[in-house]
Amino acid sequence: MGIADKAKNAAEDALGKAKEVVGDVTGNDSLKAEGKADQAKASAKKTGEDVKDVFKG
């Protein structure tokens, strides 16, 4: 996994966490759900990249 990919995934995860917190604080369930979805997407990408790294190495 390249450094750029890791940075993108970390940024997407952080943005998702921020959306979730803002949604929770403001009572916006849609934003909260969107934040959780962003985090899940970042996690899935990281897992996929980790699997590719295992087979490369």
TrEMBL record:
Residues 5-56 form the CsbD-like domain. It holds the Pfam family CsbD. It comes from the Bacteria. The lineage of its organism: Bacteria, Bacillati, Actinomycetota, Actinomycetes, Propionibacteriales. Residues 46-57 have a biased composition (Basic and acidic residues). Signal peptide: none annotated. Belongs to the UPF0337 (CsbD) family. Residues 28-57 are annotated as: Disordered. It comes from Nocardioides kribbensis. This is CsbD family protein.
